[in-house]
Sequence to fold (457 residues):
Amino acid sequence: MVALMASGAVLPRPASAQVRTLKAVAFSGKRYVALADIAAMYGLPLVPQPGKTHLVRGQNVSLLFTENQRKAVINGTVVWLHAPLTPIKGKWYVSDADAQYVIDPLVRPSAYLGGRGTQTVILDPGHGGKDPGCHSTAGQQEKDTALAIALRVRAHLLAAGLRVVMTRDTDKFLELEDRPKLASKQKGDLFVSIHLNATANTAVKGVETFATAAENYPATADGDLSKKHAAEPNNKFNHSSTALANQIQKALVGVTRAEDRGLKRARFVVIRESSMPAALVECGFLTNAGEASKLATTAYRETVARGIAQGILNYIALVNRAKKELGAPVVQTPAVPALLPAPAPAPAPAPAAPAAAPKPTPMASRSFTLPPQAQPAAPVPRTVAPAAPAPQPAPQPAPAVPAAPAYAPAPVRPVPVISAPAPALPAYPPVPIAPPPNHLLNPGLATRPAPTPGALQ
Fold:
């Protein structure tokens, strides 16, 4: 487990009652935290679902896990865990790395992003020069498509008032190690590397985004938990890189409607050596004929660029929010339907209550949860006893029975308990994704219209 180290970087104030305070158990050389404990920490229920899945859900939180699998769905986006959901002594556990560096930063980003910068974005178009990267059957090269998309991302970010530095803006070769070094020299606040994918299976398609794998855990493509992995420089930014990669993946899927291959983990040189939050995005498969043909068009490259830019702007919006909130409460708002429609007070039959006989009837008609024996017990002594001396004084205790409507809200008393955490809860809905056609990204952050793409391909 990698402790959060400053190393010259300004880091946010530690959030109270973080996951690290939960009891962890050792299993097969790794540390695990009970999923039920994580749910309880957030004040949310853990509900088994069909298909051997488990759901933790609140008003702004949705965590869906599948038994013995690493693939999860967090707030609507596919997220690959470092280790599968694992059974230990009859309970289901997630790895300590996933609890600390994946789940909590996505549930409570404001607890981790308050110390991050937002002014300078480093864009890294993959490959270049003598390194063409992968290619399509039609000869479309990764280096050209990645650069075309990156130039368009830059245009959108400049329009939002950000400083953008590109590791290359022409077809030139750069060593992998030089890219994060350049980012550091330029005092970047976040690093995004843009690539295209390839595989032997030509049916595979979709987009995926990578953050650096945690210390001692394998990349998503590996899965061998027995291997040892040393800490990388970028592991100092595990929380922030997770938030950045997740926002890019979420926005890119939302804008392009491409298949969601998820937020994954890897140790690519350009992100593992980065001295800032870093993500690497794969914009589609050039080995898939349909996806390659779309990526060859100017319109779809623009759509992809909008998605990446939107994700970056959404991450920056989270950082700016965190600077104001200075942390985030652990307890989340439960996802309960609005059960607060308290029954409207029934019209009081005060004027027409002359006799004692009808008084027990209103209580029975309200279907209280009181025991049925208790209903006649209270009113009978009061109405029968005074009836012998005089028929007129009997209405004197009558006002006590019409007061029964005051007890009508009793069944709703649990509501204050449910709504108690709400005042202290900042909502974390995802920043809305701008529609692809002719809409400026994130109007709240943009300050001027996007420059004309000009000769962008």
Observations:
- The longest helix spans residues 298-325.
- Confidence is low (pLDDT under 50) at residues 1-12, 338-345, 353-390, 397-456.
